[in-house]
Each structure stands twice: as structure tokens, then as C-alpha cells.
Amino acid sequence: MPATVQIDVLRESDAARCAELERLLFPEDDPWSERAFTEEVRAGHPYLAARDGELLVGYAGLGFVAGPPHAEAEIHTIGVDPAHQRRGIGRALLRGLLAVADELAATVFLEVRTDNDAARALYEAEGFAVVGLRKRYYRPSGADAHTMRREPKS
């Protein structure tokens, strides 16, 4: 990851930029709105931002669906500006979310498009394994998704 990029907490004021990146990254699959990001941050879900100076270049979010003693979490979203991809920013964001999940020894789930080889390789490198297939999961494109799981780290 470039030395100029810092990971910190996503703020409500970042929601418009997140929605802009969503439209760029996921134009076929109902990208999240500014309001959706604002609501996630207000709800207190762990969301991270990657910033190159003042510019938001990436974001990631996690939600807990069950608490201890058998905690479970799901990766809601990860996105990195195409101009900043392949520099380790997505991996740093993912590791930040996983550190939060590991504090509660949570099993972590996510969905990834079956045709997104780069994302799937990243997830596998970070300990995720495919555990299922969701046909026509993404809308409106109808793309399939793999469900992936990572066991808790102690």
C-alpha cells in the first residue's frame, strides 16, 4: 500500500464519495446510494476508509449478525477507486475489518461475484473458502455469487 494512503474510520461526510465510487465500480449491480452509506455509518457498523491525503480512494464495511459466544459477521462491501487498485488498498481494508471481527472471534461471511477472479483470490489469500453458490444473486445483472466463509482467528 502506498505510504500516502491511510486507513481510518469512514465518516458520514464520506457517503457521497462512496456512492460515486459504487456507481463506477458496480454499474450493473444496483450500486449503493449515498443514503445507504450514511445509514450504515449512523448505525455504528464498523466501516473503514482509505484516504490518499484528503481523497477517499476506498471503503469497506462489516456488520455483525450474531454476537458471542458464536459471533458471526458479514462483509457488506469493499471498494477501491480503479485509479488506485492493485496497490494493496483493498487488502489493507479487508484486514482492518477482519481485525475487528477477530476481536469477537467471529466467523466472517461474504458474497463475491463468481466472475470476479481478483476479489476471490484476495479473499482466499486471507483465509476465506467457498461454501456455497447463490444463483442470480446480484441485481439487476443476474450475476451469480459465491458465498465465502472465514473461520475466526484467535
UniProtKB/TrEMBL annotation:
Top-level lineage group: Bacteria
PROSITE patterns: GNAT (PS51186)
Catalytic activity: N-terminal L-alanyl-[ribosomal protein bS18] + acetyl-CoA = N-terminal N(alpha)-acetyl-L-alanyl-[ribosomal protein bS18] + CoA + H(+)
Pfam assignment, any one: Acetyltransf_1
Class in the EC hierarchy, top level: transferase
Record GO cellular component, one term: cytoplasm
Record carries keyword Transferase: yes
Name of the protein in its database record: [Ribosomal protein bS18]-alanine N-acetyltransferase
